[in-house]
Amino acid sequence: MDGKRRIVFRQNDRGEITDFCASPLCVATMQKQPWWEIPSVQWAGIGVFLSPILGGLIGIPVAAFLQRKQAKPGLSKAARSIAWLTCLSWAAGFGSMLAGLQDAQNIVFGPTRNLKITLELWAAAAVLTVISLLFVLPAWRRGWWRPLGRFCFSLIVLSGIGCVLWLSHWNLLGWKY
Predict the structure, then answer these.
(1) Strand order, beta sheet including 17-23
(2) Mind listing the pLDDT tens digit for each residue in 19-54?
């Protein structure tokens, strides 16, 4: 307030503040982020995507156990197994990411082993999500499970698609190092 430095704000054509820097050099600017990139919104979004996936880790085996004596087509069993593997891959990938946060300072020296494992799990989960997506329409058309089971299966697939989009937004899908 009483020093010689000033903060310089820049406006766009509509008069909205877009960024600012500390004068006199303005070496680095701070840009205003849209509301959807605020960390709390990002964490809430990924929480919404992961909730059905974590529920599927428990719910799919429970449903399989409860319906073990019912005759089911082979493709419905394959769809259920792939959906469970999809849930497992997403959960393991995000668990690996959280476990690797303590090792984040070492990324300066190259990708850590934990980061490589995380990226591999996410790539596998993305592929499994696409494979699960192929089973959604036949599950509904052929009535493989009860309506609640088909809804939960569809919700897991949509959550997987949401995770793929989230990772793509942050450029975390694939091996880009």
Answers:
(1) 6-11, 17-23, 29-31
(2) 888 877 777 888 878 888 888 999 899 999 999 999
Residue spans of the domains in the chain: they are 1-32, 36-169
- Give the separation between CA 48 and CA 163, rounded to whole angstroms: 10
10 within 8 A of 18, measured Cβ to Cβ? yes
Give bridge partners of residue 20 from the DSSP assignment.
9, 30
pLDDT tens per residue, range 112-155 = 888 889 999 999 999 999 999 999 999 999 988 889 999 999 99
Cα end-to-end distance, the chain, whole Å: 43
Lookup: tokens for 108: 């300066």
Task: Name the nearest CA neighbour of 52 among 167, 166, 169, 157.
Answer: 157
pLDDT tens, 56-95? 999 999 988 988 888 778 898 999 999 999 999 999 999 9
CA 165, 166, 167: angle at the middle one, nearest 5? 90
Q: How far apart, in whole angstroms, are the C-alpha atoms of residue 153 and residue 133? A: 9
Residue 113, both tokens: 């082993």
